[in-house]
Design brief:
27% of the residues lie in helices and 34% in strands. A three-stranded antiparallel sheet has the order 1-2-3, with helices on one face.
Protein backbone atom coordinates (compact mmCIF):
# COMPACT_ATOMS: atom_id res chain seq x y z
CA UNK A 1 0.00 0.00 0.00
CA UNK A 2 1.41 3.38 -0.92
CA UNK A 3 1.38 6.35 1.38
CA UNK A 4 0.02 9.65 0.18
CA UNK A 5 1.70 12.90 1.13
CA UNK A 6 -0.58 14.89 3.40
CA UNK A 7 1.71 17.90 3.73
CA UNK A 8 5.24 19.28 3.61
CA UNK A 9 6.51 21.63 6.31
CA UNK A 10 9.81 23.53 6.29
CA UNK A 11 11.28 24.56 9.66
CA UNK A 12 14.57 25.88 11.00
CA UNK A 13 15.65 23.87 14.06
CA UNK A 14 18.77 23.68 16.22
CA UNK A 15 20.78 20.49 15.62
CA UNK A 16 20.45 18.05 18.51
CA UNK A 17 18.52 20.54 20.62
CA UNK A 18 15.04 20.91 19.19
CA UNK A 19 12.41 21.47 21.82
CA UNK A 20 8.69 21.92 22.11
CA UNK A 21 7.70 25.36 20.85
CA UNK A 22 4.58 27.09 19.64
CA UNK A 23 5.83 27.15 16.06
CA UNK A 24 6.75 23.48 16.01
CA UNK A 25 3.51 22.49 17.73
CA UNK A 26 1.37 24.50 15.34
CA UNK A 27 3.21 23.34 12.23
CA UNK A 28 3.22 19.61 12.95
CA UNK A 29 0.23 19.38 15.29
CA UNK A 30 -2.05 20.56 12.50
CA UNK A 31 -1.25 17.31 10.68
CA UNK A 32 -1.71 15.10 13.75
CA UNK A 33 1.99 14.33 14.21
CA UNK A 34 3.19 13.26 17.66
CA UNK A 35 5.45 16.23 18.35
CA UNK A 36 7.40 14.60 21.18
CA UNK A 37 8.21 11.67 18.92
CA UNK A 38 9.39 14.03 16.16
CA UNK A 39 11.61 15.95 18.60
CA UNK A 40 13.14 12.70 19.87
CA UNK A 41 13.81 11.45 16.31
CA UNK A 42 15.20 14.79 15.14
CA UNK A 43 17.51 15.22 18.13
CA UNK A 44 18.80 11.65 17.81
CA UNK A 45 19.51 12.10 14.10
CA UNK A 46 21.26 15.46 14.49
CA UNK A 47 23.03 15.16 17.85
CA UNK A 48 26.27 14.01 16.24
CA UNK A 49 27.78 15.29 13.04
CA UNK A 50 26.88 18.94 13.61
CA UNK A 51 28.42 21.59 15.80
CA UNK A 52 26.26 22.52 18.82
CA UNK A 53 23.89 25.33 17.95
CA UNK A 54 23.93 24.73 14.20
CA UNK A 55 20.70 25.87 12.60
CA UNK A 56 19.29 23.34 10.17
CA UNK A 57 16.67 23.95 7.51
CA UNK A 58 14.46 20.91 7.94
CA UNK A 59 11.85 19.70 5.49
CA UNK A 60 9.28 17.37 7.04
CA UNK A 61 7.13 15.26 4.73
CA UNK A 62 3.94 14.09 6.43
CA UNK A 63 1.98 11.12 5.13
CA UNK A 64 -1.70 10.22 5.41
CA UNK A 65 -0.95 7.47 7.96
CA UNK A 66 0.53 10.16 10.32
CA UNK A 67 4.09 8.97 9.70
CA UNK A 68 6.78 11.39 8.59
CA UNK A 69 10.25 11.66 7.16
CA UNK A 70 12.59 14.62 7.41
CA UNK A 71 15.63 15.93 5.57
CA UNK A 72 18.02 18.48 7.06
CA UNK A 73 20.31 20.98 5.35
CA UNK A 74 22.81 23.18 7.21
Amino acid sequence: MSRKVQGIVTLVLVAGNAGLSEVLGAALGAFGINIESFIKDFNAATSSGYLPGTLLATTVTIYDDFSYTFVTMP
